[in-house]
Model the fold of this input.
Amino acid sequence: MGVAALLVLLALANGVKAGEAYCDACKGDSGWSGASKLDEIGNPEAIKKSESMSGLNTAQKNRVGIWKQPLAGFEAEGSDKQNNASNSEKSVLETPAQSVGKSAEENATIVRSEESKKMLVSLEDVNSSCILLDISENATEHISGSIAVPYTRFLSEGNLRSVDEISQILGSAGLSNDECIIIYGECMPCGGGPAPATLAYWMMKSLGHENVRVLDGTVKDWAAAGKSTSVEVATMPPKNYTGVFTPDFMATYDYVKSQTPQIVDARSMQEFGNGSIPGAINIPFESMISNGRIKEEAKLKRIFAILSKDRPVVVYTGQPTKGSVGWFALELMGYDAMLYSYENWQYNEAASKVSSGNATA
Done:
């Protein structure tokens, strides 16, 4: 693997924090709903029009000029007006009737398509031909027969380790490139949710691992189905794992800047309101999750209806852990998706301005 490719991987991973509290809203919907159409995504004329509005930041210009949405709740942070708007919006989103509806939705059976089985495997379809990989942090209960590699082992000082280091960790756990692997687990200190599993899935796909899927459920779901769990994990003799970096799963700054792809900001509404990539549309990653699981395709179809399948999609958050949920859901629905990070965008934008300033000096 080339040094340049490794730097791209590390730059994208910058800011992935061990124990990151990403799951505050993993258990339910965010209340987000899209506009009826967003065919102005990346439209230079629309962006130009939004830039003519003085006194607004990028996200506010996009919201008013491109998405034709009210500015309420997106004023400068700390203002009384913002607090009032946020409180008003919160009271609307958390009415008792909707809370009851949310609980009913969470308890409903999720229907999966045959196509989804390429990425998700149901509890019933797990068999002994695949290795179950638990990536939970400090788990006290495991699916019987599974091996454990906490996802935090793939991190060093908040960043993803190098390809060689990750390959060494996987090989030491008894995995090879040809294994059928089913990833499951949660960050329990963060409150649960699928983000660590989707991140590990994205990571392994980026290393060229083909035969890997995510378990459609948790250890508790497994136990509730009457299946065996254990406080112990299995051990396997070491094998040779050789990761080969594959750039198809991550976006670069230049690609995002080109306005070629549709851009999805999967952060919270508040984070989006405080600044975003020009032309991005806000679809919070929490809106793609129900009761700690990726929503069924019928619901994801409505969530992503504003996006065209004829154009690639780049999804980003502050850190790829959360963004991997959006990337996974988009891929599940058949979109050509890539993962990116807002930190990478900010870094390159700042470097570009410094470079421009030096050139004119």
Summary: The first helix runs from residue 3 to 13.
